[in-house]
Amino acid sequence: MRGCLTLAHDDAFAAELAKTFRYGKFQLYLQFDGTQEAGQKFLRGADLRATRERCLERCREMKLPVTLAMTVTSENLPCLWEAIDFGLRWPNVRGISFQPMFTSGRIPNHTGLRLQLGVQSGTAHQRKGLRFGG
Predict the structure, then answer these.
(1) In terms of residue numbers, what domain contains 40?
(2) Residue from 123, 122, 45 nearest 88 by CA
(3) Which of 2, 69, 112, 115 has the greatest count of CB atoms below 10 A from its CB?
(4) Residue 37 lies in a domain
């Protein structure tokens, strides 16, 4: 998340990255916790949506490809398609990596739900009949 904050708010850093970036040689993986405020606060302790959007704007300006890396929890599982829809609005977002939350004790009182199958079935159910690729 620190890199996103730096890219979003540090003009000199963004300018240097834009100057040295070469298409095809670099891609940014951006930590992304969905589009809901509650998911932001649960995982990061603050609502960082505006910061992430500023980071994505800067990446778009320099044509820097981005993959959104979304931590999936039981709380944001019903909102996977909203995350996909969000990514589709950015021409430089190449995909979303759904990463079910690994519970190793850092989240207190978490039930340790197994989310792998929930991600697959959730996106299929939430897409509401949309089809891709043929």
Answers:
(1) 2-126
(2) 123
(3) 115
(4) yes
Q: Which residues contact 63 (CB under 8 A, 6 or more apart)?
A: 23, 92
Q: Is residue 120 part of a domain?
A: yes
Distances (CA, A) of 15 to 42, 61, 62, 81, 111: 32, 11, 9, 33, 44
Domain assignment of residue 52, yes or no? yes
* Token pair of 82 as six digits: 């909203």
Residue 57 tokens read as: 């704007």
Q: How many domains does the chain have?
A: 1
Cα-based distances in Å from 94 to 27, 57, 88, 91: 9, 14, 9, 8
pLDDT at 133 over 50: no
In this predicted structure, the answer to whether residue 134 has a pLDDT above a threshold of 50 is: no
Query: pLDDT by residue (tens digit) across 47-98?
Result: 888 888 998 999 998 888 999 998 888 778 888 888 889 999 999 999 998 8
**How many other β-carbons are positioned within 10 Å of the β-carbon of residue 95?**
12
DSSP for residue 129: T
Query: Cα–Cα distances in Å, from 45 out to 39, 72, 76?
Result: 9, 16, 15
